[in-house]
Amino acid sequence: MAVHIRLARAGTKKRPFYRVVVTDERAPRGGRFLELIGTFDPAKEMKAVEGKTPLHLDHVRFTHWTGRGAQPSETLARVIKASAKATATTAK
């Protein structure tokens, strides 16, 4: 069983909200998952001030799952990278 870390869409029509989930790669996008490890709200991306990013991630669980071989999706990897960049620039 290959395990992936990816975004599961939630929210209403034209107001997306995503959960960061650990899931079997065969499960559908909004289907069953093993563990919920964070959230991502793209609507808050425009309002990211004072180091508050739209991504909330449990880093301990993220490293736990990546240590066990789980691969983050391309989109999630891009969001994490942008979030880290945003917090690094506001921390200066």
Keyword list:
single chain; 92 residues; alpha+beta; S16 Ribosomal Protein, Chain: A; 5-stranded mixed sheet; 2 helices; 29% helix
Please write out the topology.
Elements: E1 3-12, E2 15-24, E3 35-40, E4 55-57, H1 59-67, E5 71-72, H2 74-91
Written account of the structure:
There is one protein chain. The chain is an alpha+beta fold and 92 residues long. It has a single domain, classed as S16 Ribosomal Protein, Chain: A (2-Layer Sandwich). The protein is 29% helix and 34% strand. The chain has two helices and five strands. The chain has a five-stranded mixed sheet. The chain is globular, with a radius of gyration of 13 Å.
Low-confidence stretches: none
In the CATH scheme, the class would be: Alpha Beta
Structural class: alpha+beta
What is the CATH superfamily?
Ribosomal protein S16
Q: What topology, given as strand order, has the largest sheet?
A: 4-3-2-1-5
Going by CATH, the architecture would be 2-Layer Sandwich
The residue-averaged pLDDT reads 86
Classify the fold: give the CATH topology. Answer: S16 Ribosomal Protein, Chain: A
Please tell me what the overall shape is: globular
Give the SSE string: EEEEHEH
Count the DSSP helices.
2
Portion in helices? 25-40%
